[in-house]
Structures are given as C-alpha cells and as structure tokens.
Design goal:
- The structure holds three protein chains of three kinds.
- By secondary structure, chain A is an alpha+beta fold.
- Chain A is built from 21 helices and 27 strands.
- Among the domains of chain A are: about 160 residues, Aldehyde oxidase/xanthine dehydrogenase, molybdopterin binding domain (Aldehyde Oxidoreductase, domain 4), CATH 3.30.365; about 230 residues, 2-Layer Sandwich (Aldehyde Oxidoreductase, domain 4), CATH 3.30.365.
- Helices cover about 30% and strands about 25% of the residues of chain A.
- Chain A has a seven-stranded mixed sheet, sandwiched between helices. In chain A, strands 7-15-14-13-8-27 form a six-stranded mixed sheet. Chain A has a four-stranded mixed sheet with strand order 16-24-25-26, with helices on both faces.
- In chain A, helix 10 runs parallel beside helix 11 and helix 11 runs parallel beside helix 20.
- Chain B has a single domain, classed as Ubiquitin-like (UB roll).
- In chain B, strand 3 and strand 4 form a beta hairpin.
- The chains are: A alpha+beta, B alpha+beta, C alpha+beta.
- Chains in contact: A-B, A-C.
Chain lengths: ~750, ~80, ~160
C-alpha cells in the first residue's frame, strides 16, 4: 500500500555514478541475449506468415512439409486446442497464430521446426495455404466509417454510439465543466486536425526464445522479454498447462520500450517443442519484427482550444482517434487522458476512440498513446502563443497544472513538477540563445502516469558477509545497478558487496512486467523493505549475542550497536560479523518483501529544441536539444540521463522520419532499417538532460519513474520548432523531407 | 458514503450522473458497491478499471482504505510501456 | 550438400570450420564457433550490431559469407580485451554509462576501436559519422560519443 514514505536523508551511495554490475559482460560480448542460448539436440523454428492484409484461411496443407528431410514438427492453429481463460490472452493467441482469418500482412499461419535453419526454411515453402483474400483497411478514419471492411463482429463495446463500423471497439470520454460556455468566453479559438503515422519501438534485438517441453507437460523457456512472469502466465494459459510447470528465464534484453510486454514466438516455440520432443530455438528476422511485432497506434486527432486575450484558456476539446492494429487496445483512451494533463482547464472534453485495422496488433510503446496526443495539443498551444505574441513558456506557465488542479483525467493533482520544469526551461541559456536564418525553436510539455504493481524481492546474507539480491524484472537500462545501490544504502555496506540477479519464475514470487516506468520505483521500494527486513533479523541476532533486548539495538553504518548507554556497552557487530556466526545464532539470514506497490507518482517534462530547415530539400537538422524532467530522486544519475536522452531521440525519429508505409494491397512497404529510418549518430547533437529531483512522497528515497515521460514532449517540441523555422504549421507526422517541402511550397 | 466521479462515457451508463455515491470503506467494497448499484457497469468492471484515490492510482488493491472525504475518480484501466 | 572447409584466423587464433555456401560469417561465428558477441539485428547491413574487422577493415559480418573468411584475419568483440585487461574503450563504456541494454555495444566497440586505430584524435563530427552505421535505440548516442572522445583523449595522453 502506498503511503507517504519519503524521509529526507543524506545519501552515501544513491545519487553516485557507480559502474553497473552487468557492464563487463556487455562490453566483452559474454552477455547472453535471447538468440544467444543453445541446447543439445536443438531444432530451429520458423513461422510462415500471411502475405495478405486480410484473408480467410480456407485450408492449410502441411503434409508435404512434414515429409521433408530434417523436419520434426509443423504446427498450425489446429494444434492450439486449449481455449485461454482470459479474453486478452485469446487475442494474443489469435495474434501469435491466426485462426479463421489472417488479419494483417505478416500474421503467422503455421510454423516449422527442423534440424537446420535451411531445412526449416525450405519446409515453410512447402506448406500450402488456401486463402480467400478479403477487402482490407489500414487507415483509422477509413476504418471507422460504416461500410468499411470489418475485421471482427460482436466486439464493439457498449460505449460506442450508432453510426460507426464494427471496427470501432470503444469510446472513452473525459473532461469536466461546460465547453460550450467556455468557448463562448474565448477571444480567440484555434481548431486544427492532426495525423501521426504508426512507428515501431525499434529495439535492435529481434524477438528470440529457446523452448524445451516434454511429454510430462513440464517446460523451460529462455527468452528476451520485459516480463518473464507475464510470459509464463500467458504461455501457460495458451498451452493449457499449469503455470508452475513452466519455468521462464529472462535473457539479457536488447531493448524493449514496451514492445516486449507481450508474447509472439514463445507459445509457438513451446508447441513446436512439445510436438517434436526436442528443444526449439526461434528468432525473428528484422522483417518479421517490423511486420508482426510491436508498432504503436497511428492517429487522427482534432483539437480545439479557446483563449482570452491574456492567454487564459477558457475551454478545450480533443477527439483522439487511434488505430491499434487488429485487436483491442486502450491507446485512444490514454491519449484522451494525457493530452491535456499538463494544463489547469475549467472546461474540457476529450474523447478517445479505439479502432481496429488490418495492421499488426499494437504493443505498448513508451508512454503508450501519450506522445501523439501531446503533439496535437502542444501544437495548438504553440499556435495560440504565436497569435497572441506571447512567449510559449509563459502561456504554459499561465495555464499550467499544479497541486490542487483538477487533472484532465479527473483527479486532483497532489504536488507535481510541471511548472518547475517550465521555469527551469525558461531560465536555461538555451531558451534565450540567438537563432539564425531558417532556424526555429520549439517547446513542448508532456505527462505520463507511471505505475507500481506486483513486486517480489529476496535479499540473502551469505556467510562471508556478501549479499545477493534476487529481483524478478528484466534489467532494461541499469536496474541491477540501482537495486544494488539502494540495498547497499539501506544496509550500510559497500556497493561492491552486493550482487543483484534477475531470478527465473521458479525462484521468486510474482512480478509484474518491466513497464509503466515501475522498476526503480516499485522494485526499489521492495529492495529497501527487504533490506530493512534483513536488518531486523540481524539486530535480533546481535541482541541475542549480547543478551539484551532486540529493541535496544540499532543499525548504523552497516553494523548493529547498542542503542544508547542504557542498552549496555558492546563493540558494534558488523554485517560481516553477524553473517560469520549466523549458523550459531539461528541459521540463514534473508530479507524479503512482496507487495502490490500501487500509487506511483505522476511525472512531467518540458523539452526545448532548435531546428534548421533546408527550404530547398525540406530536410530538418536538430541543432540543439534540452530535456527538463521531474525525475524524483535520481538513484543513478547517468542512467536517468540516459532515459531522458534516449526518449528524446526516439521522439526525434518519430517526428522526422519513422513511419509504417502500407501499399494499396495493405502490405507493409518498408519492413527494414534501410527504409524505416531510425536516428543515427550523425543525425544528432548532444542531448542535454536537466534532472529536477522533486521527491515522490510514495517512495522512501523519493524515487519516481523516469523511463516513459521523456518520449511524450518531443513530437510536439520538434513540430513547433520546425513550424516556426519553416513558417508553416506542420500537422502531420513524420515531417519527412518530401512532406515538409510540399508544405513550404504550398505556403 | 463515498462520492465517486465517473468518466464521461461511464456516466452515460449511469443516466448521465457524473458523480455517484457508494457505501464503501475500501476499494473492494467500492467495486462491489458499483457493481450492485449500476449493473450496466458490469462489462467495464469485468474489463477492469483503475481508481484514483486522493490523486494516487490503484488497479487491484482490495483493502486500500477509502475515507468519506477521499476524492475517488474512476479511470480506464491503465497500461504502460 | 557438400560443405566448404575454411581455414582462417579469428582473434589471433587459427580456426577452421565447415560451412554451407550460403552461411554468412555471422552465422558461422554465432552458430558454429559460439562467438555470440556479434549480434544479428537486421541481417541486411543496416544496424551494425554484427560489426567485425576483416583484415583490419570494418564489415557487417551478416554481409560477408563464411567462405570468404578463408585465409583472412577476423577480429570480433571477444578478442578486444587483452586477457583480463579491458581495452580503454571497454573500460570507459562501463564507467561512463555508454550502454543501456547493451545489444549494440559489441558492434559499436569494434567500430570505435577501428576508428581510434586509424585516427587517434577524431572530432565529435568524425565520431558521429564513423558510428553512423551502428544503430543504438536506447542512449540517443550522447554518452557513446562522449565515451569514445574521452577514450581517445586518454589514449593520446598515455601514448
């Protein structure tokens, strides 16, 4: 349960920049990622994928493939006979192995395991699938219209009004006040429509796993994931097996950004292994990663904001239409909740729409749903500032949310850091630096919720006084370092005396996925509590050794000592001393903590960017970029900075280049890094991170999630900079050179 | 009684009321009370909701105390990346 | 299908292997020699995660056939440290937090070492262009560029 736990203190280790414990393995090539594990007698598994955007699968003939040399198993949907208990998992099964219909280009329809890669690939070509090609739709606005090709029937939720196609699955409305009355009071009203393309998380490591399942219905799975407990629970539900019989070990993970919070290959590999009786390794190619995993929603958004001449917003509305691929997602609702979250608005109405199309099932991508909403809202705020001749930071400070503001999504904010980030931005030399010809400066704000969630941590005291910490969340950006730091801080021992590992699903209690910027907050909280639990035991051992009351012992600088002169005079017993005698004083010593750490603190950021637009080509150069974020206590400042820098650069890619491009036939046209261009080193300047450490009251050290908020402001920030540099308002992402050039020429 | 703020599309299922009163001293009682008083909420409650209690967001914690003066706001169930 | 017998030198050691004609050098390194430090991110030469040195030149090992390595010298990430002594780039990547998930790190280190072998005093722009073929999705490149520049300065100071 979250309560106000923050206590101000002087830190010895937290806040320093220690080397990470997994660093050596990662700079020497020893670290084992998803595709780096092998097993004796292992087979190679590959998927056959639909070449059609939308097709009924009339029949699949696998007989020829099964007879080929080296082929040990072929699976189709017919092998998945168990119906998952959870509705969400049914969708996941439909996504990892198509049922009656292939719903997008790249949808898996069958899979093969063989004793060599070449034998498996040859067998894929021998599988005969009889498709009845159906009309398809990939654009969100087209998909909503009555008469659009429909993917599913009977999935529309009760919130959807009449007059839409069955592709519209849900509608969520948020807001407060009376927007009509608010707009009536406005001196200026700006109304704009925006579009953003779908983008991919773009992790460099493709999905990969190694599954081993026997006819005893017991299995082991090694895979790259953001949550191996989620993999276990989901795969067990799909396979119809008890979760305790499936042990999942998380590999090192080569990036996720939300895209590895679900399963793709894992159930298929388990089924191939079960059917062949041999371990099966599967890895996706980049083409498969692009066609069949991860993308975020593409959107179509209408924003209307009314202001008085002094800049006070009187009313705002937003209509957020998000397509999230072929199954339900809640990205539209998140957009409707987050877009206006930085503002204190008297009258607000937002509507989020969830729409399905013939595209891969969207996965979460770093603050899912929020960056596109912020792009639209912040673009209109920028236009208003320009029209009023007002400094865009001043406009935001005038209307910015603070403690006591009714948030766009309903609740009243506790103490928040938005205005602190705006003031820091305004005071930064970047904001007042001169600009040259064809250059423009943009600013944008962003909000994200941050989560806590189910967390288990065990902390073991070894006989020689070293400490092992087991956590259950894959280390995606240095979390083993930050957990060791928090444990060392609490125990009062050197950082190097602790080794943190990510335990498998059979070695630790339940853990939620590494998502929602939850790990440093929630696992950190559990780590501190586990250390405190171990300290209580060690104090008891010292008390027994001295023959005094446990209450009369205190823990100071890594040692038990009598708490004042009345307790008696004894030299301190260090953690090492207590560890050395533990078998004589009562046996092994471990601390642990398990909780659903809810009530995480929300987070805000403000970004500033300078761009230069080439009026001849439409190319944009990022000249300077500064990030201001309320990060709570930065446990390891290097890795907090890294989150802010990495989020900004993903946002730069989203704003300028990245997009899923579909052809007339509904197939993806740019399924590779050559044509789907993510930012490279030569595209970028240094990214300056400014960390504002406003403590989170819900964490003992004041830690707040930092991973996601950094991707929310960039789309808007860059669009505002480009629009000012080019002298034309850009309302469609990405602002790729041809699109920008056309806008400049049309102006 | 606890005053519970509904989001717009949920309020449409409660005859347009933006705020409803439920007798509850913790999250579990709140969810049970909503289910009993507003059967139309059942599909949404089954899909899951998040609840903001005094500005902090909870998904599951049944025994999270709620006082009569707590600000309670229902939200679509949140997911992250 | 008959396989091709290849004699080559990898990280200073004489190595021989049998490969199929279509096997890439990356396939051979990873599947046959268990040198899994070189990563497959795209198999099309676009991401640089499989970067190795072939006769001192940087190549994407996914674009080189295993058979082509015959009689030549291959250096991978596994050969970068001298026993238990890390190369200054490796040391500084750890100390200066120049990696997050670490999947691109082997390729970037091999490429950065090759740069410093050729140019001990690169400008920021030269480092950025040299590493433009190595994608990183986590860091935004900032700390990577700084770590390479700092290592270059440190190595010049020590020389």
């Amino acid at each position: 349960m979250a309560k106000d736990e923050f206590e101000k203190r002087e830190f010895k280790i937290v806040g320093t920049r220690v080397p990470r414990p997994d660093g050596l393995d990662k700079v020497t090539g020893r670290a084992r990622y998803g595709a780096d594990m092998s097993a004796p007698g292992m087979l190679f598994g590959y998927c056959l994928r639909s070449p059609h955007a939308h097709a009924r699968i009339k029949s699949i003939d696998t007989s020829e493939a099964e007879a080929m040399p080296g082929v040990k198993a072929v699976v189709t949907r017919a092998d998945f006979t168990h119906v998952p208990a959870s509705g969400g998992t049914k969708d996941i099964l439909d996504n990892v192995m198509a049922g009656e219909k292939a719903l997008y280009d790249g949808h898996t329809v069958a899979a093969v395991a063989a004793n060599s890669r070449s034998a498996a690939k040859a067998a894929l070509k021998a599988i005969k699938v009889d498709y009845e090609v159906l009309p398809h739709v990939t654009d969100v606005d087209e998909a909503m219209k009555p008469g659009a090709p429909e993917l599913h029937q009977g999935r529309q939720q009760e919130s959807v009004p009449e007059g839409f196609s069955q592709n519209v699955l849900a509608r969520s409305q948020y807001g407060h006040g009376d927007v009509d009355a608010g707009f009536a009071k406005a001196d200026i009203i700006v109304e704009r429509s925006f579009k953003t393309a779908a983008t991919h998380q773009g992790y460099i490591e493709p999905h990969a796993c190694l599954a081993s399942m026997g006819n005893d219905n017991q299995a082991d799975l090694f895979c790259c994931t953001q949550g191996h407990f989620m993999v276990r629970n989901t795969c067990a539900d799909i396979m119809g097996m008890e979760s305790g019989r499936l042990r999942v070990t998380a590999s090192e993970i080569g990036g996720g950004f939300g895209g590895k919070t679900t399963v793709f290959l894992e159930p298929v590999a388990l089924m191939l292994s079960k059917k062949s009786g041999k371990p099966v390794k599967m890895t996706m190619s980049r083409d498969e990663v692009m066609r069949a995993s991860g993308p975020t929603a593409s959107t179509s958004i209408d924003i209307k904001i009314g202001v008085k001449k002094d800049g006070t917003v009187t009313a705002a509305t937003g209509d957020f239409r998000y397509q999230s691929g072929c199954f339900y997602s809640m990205n539209g609702a998140l957009g409707a909740m987050c877009g206006f979250a930085p503002y204190d608005l008297e009258n607000l109405k937002t509507v989020g729409w969830e729409v399905v199309t013939n595209r891969p099932k969207a996965a979460a991508y770093r603050a899912p749903g929020a960056p596109m909403a912020a792009f639209a809202v912040e673009s209109v705020m920028d236009e208003i500032a320009k029209e009023l001749g007002m400094d865009p930071i001043d406009l935001r400070l005038l209307n910015g949310a603070e403690e006591g503001t009714k948030a766009a999504y309903g609740p009243t904010y506790p103490a928040i850091g938005l205005k602190a980030t705006l003031k820091a931005a305004k005071a930064h030399p970047h904001w007042s630096a001169p600009l040259g010809e064809n250059q423009g400066r943009g600013v944008g704000c962003g909000f994200w919720f941050n989560f806590g969630g189910n967390t288990s941590v065990s902390l073991m005291i070894n006989p020689d006084g070293t400490v092992n910490l087991s956590e259950g969340n894959p280390d995606i950006g240095g979390s083993r370092a930050s957990m060791s730091m928090m444990a060392a801080e609490e125990l009062g021992i050197p950082y190097e005396q602790i080794r943190t590992i990510v335990a498998d699903t059979a070695s630790l209690g339940e853990n939620d996925v590494t998502d929602g910027s939850r790990v440093t907050f929630a696992v950190g909280l559990a780590t501190i509590k586990a250390a405190r639990h171990a300290i209580e035991i060690m104090k008891g051992r010292a008390a027994a050794t001295w023959g005094i009351d446990a209450d009369a012992v205190e823990w100071v600088d890594g040692a038990a000592q009598p708490a004042g002169p009345n307790a008696g005079k004894f030299p301190p017993l260090t953690l090492k001393d207590i560890a050395a005698t533990m078998s004589k004083t009562g046996g092994p010593i471990s601390g642990h903590h398990e909780a659903n750490a809810e009530g995480a603190g929300v987070s805000f950021g403000t970004h500033i960017c300078d761009t230069e637009v080439d009026p001849e080509t439409g190319a944009v150069k990022i000249l300077r970029y500064t990030v201001f974020q309320d990060a709570g206590k930065a446990v390891h400042p290097d890795y907090v900075e890294g989150q802010l820098q990495g989020g900004a650069v993903q946002g730069i890619g989203w704003a300028l280049n990245e997009e899923y491009i579909y052809g007339e036939d509904g197939t993806l046209q740019n399924a590779g890094y050559l044509d789907y261009r993510i930012p490279v080193a030569s595209d970028l300047p240094m990214i300056e991170p400014v960390i504002l450490e406003i403590p989170n009251p819900g964490h003992p050290y004041g830690v707040r999630g930092v991973g996601e908020t950094g991707i929310v402001p960039p789309l808007a920030t860059i669009a505002n900079a480009v629009s000012r540099a080019a002298g034309v308002r850009m309302t469609s992402l990405p602002m790729s050179p041809p699109k920008l050039l056309a806008a400049i020429k049309a102006n | 009684m606890v005053a519970v703020t509904l989001w717009g599309s949920l309020s449409e299922l409660a005859e347009g009321q933006r705020e409803v009163e439920i007798k509850a001293s913790n999250l579990r009682e709140l969810l049970a009370g909503l289910q009993a008083a507003y059967p139309a909420f059942a599909p949404q409650l089954e899909r899951g909701i998040s609840v903001s209690i005094d500005g902090k967001i909870y998904n599951d914690s049944w025994f999270q105390p709620i006082s009569e003066t707590s600000e309670v706001v229902l939200l679509n169930r949140l997911e992250g990346g | 299908m008959s396989r091709i017998h290849v004699n080559t030198t990898i990280n200073g050691d004489a190595v021989d292997y049998l490969c199929e004609a279509e096997d890439t050098l990356l396939d051979v390194l990873r599947d046959q020699l268990d040198l899994t430090g070189s990563k497959e991110g795209c198999a099309s030469g676009d991401c640089g995660a499989c970067t190795v040195e072939l006769d001192g030149r940087l190549v994407c090992s996914c674009l080189v056939l295993g058979a082509e390595a015959g009689g030549r010298t291959v250096n991978t990430i596994e050969g970068m440290a001298d026993g238990d002594v890390l190369h200054p780039l490796q040391k500084n990547f750890i100390e200066k937090a120049a990696l997050q998930c670490g999947i691109c790190t082997p390729g970037i280190l091999v490429a950065a070492k090759n740069l410093l072998d050729h140019n001990p005093d690169p400008s920021e722009e030269e480092v950025r262009y040299w590493l433009a073929g190595n994608l990183c999705r986590c860091t935004g490149y900032d700390k990577i560029i700084r770590a390479v520049l700092d290592t270059a300065a440190e190595m010049r100071g020590a020389a």
